[in-house]
Amino acid sequence: MKKRFVLSFVTFLIITMCCFAVNPEKDFNYKLADDGESIIITGFKNNLNLYDIPSEIEEIPVTAVDIEFLGFPDIPEILIKLPDGLKQFTLVQTYSRNAPLSHITVDVLPATLEKCKIRTQKNKKNPEVFYISLKGSIKKLTQVLEFQTDCVDFEEKSITVRKEWQNVKYRPIKAMYSFDSSNIEEVIFEEGLQIVTGFSNCLKLKRVTLPSTIKVFGTDAFKFCSMLSEVTVPESVEAEKSYGSQAFYGTSLPLKTQVKLRKIGYPGLFGNEWLSDNIWERVFGKS
């Protein structure tokens, strides 16, 4: 009976700690946003390994996190938890001498997010190891209009690029997304997308499904994705001449796929093809 009581008490204590684990405001730098009605978190303080960001400070909602953050000396792992209601999240991790100070894990992104930017740099000593990891899935982020990442370790290995992540008012069309140098293995571009780009140097990317609405390949869309060997090309594609001269350079696409891509307007390089004079003419036209 006593043992059961102790176990119940411990369980209650753990649940209580989880429910009230949000960090106090003294652990953050923050400021009032331009709208005068919300707060932006601008920095982390006190050298902690967990930052559970509160949903409000002094009863004012926290709607944005905008941080350039290396980590802390002697703290190898840092976990960042984001609150529901957050609309914008920016985390830029630059180098201190040769590498960031800490490995950072970002917990599941809130469904209220409208803009996300997570950027660090490639681990030159060990490309298989990332300095920033993102847990959870991005498939439920239905309100996001911009999603920019570089060198991020995604827990979700298959993603769908949403049609809302583009600005068709630009000419050429502007992509509002990037996943360069990530560990994504499969990409599905949603119908309605007109620009396909943003996955250069994804060394584990194997499969890509293009939309029938494609108009433009980004210049380095899948450049150096050395394992990319399967690209699904819809029969109904009527692409314009692409700007992506090196979109598939350094990939492993079979010849049949290369033929299909040529037919929909891709003029650029495949595999390890060298940019010879005749290829230069095909891609850029005669000088």
Task: Quickly describe the structure.
Helices cover 12% and strands 30% of the residues. It is α/β, with parallel strands linked by helices and 287 residues long.
Could you characterize what this model shows?
The protein is α/β, with parallel strands linked by helices and 287 residues long. It folds into 2 domains: 25-153, no CATH class; 157-165 and 181-287. Helix content is 12%, strand content 30%. The protein has 3 helices and 23 strands. It has helices at 2-19, 255-263, 277-284; strands at 28-32, 39-44, 50-52, 56-57, 60-68, 77-81, 88-92, 103-106, 115-119, 132-134, 146-150, 152-154, 158-161, 166-167, 174-175, 177-180, 186-189, 195-196, 207-209, 216-217, 230-232, 248-249, 270-271. Strands 1, 2, 4, 5, 7, 9, 11 and 16 form an 8-stranded mixed beta sheet that branches. It has a 5-stranded parallel beta sheet with strand order 3-6-8-10-12, with no helix packed on it. A 4-stranded parallel beta sheet has the order 13-17-19-21, with no helix packed on it. A hairpin with a 6-residue loop joins strand 14 and strand 15 (174-175). The protein is globular, with a radius of gyration of 22 Å. The model is unreliable at 9-19 (pLDDT under 50).
Protein structure class: alpha/beta
- Main pleated-sheet profile: 8 strands, mixed
- Mean of residue pLDDT values: 87
Number of domains: 2
Overall helicity: 10-25%
Record field, number of beta strands: 23
Distance between the termini: 88 Å
Which spans of ≥5 residues are poorly predicted at pLDDT below 50? 9-19
Q: Tell me the series of helices and strands, N- to C-terminal.
A: HEEEEEEEEEEEEEEEEEEEEEEHEH
**Annotation field: number of helices:** 3
Note the beta-strand portion: 25-35%
Radius of gyration: 22 Å
The rough form would be described as globular
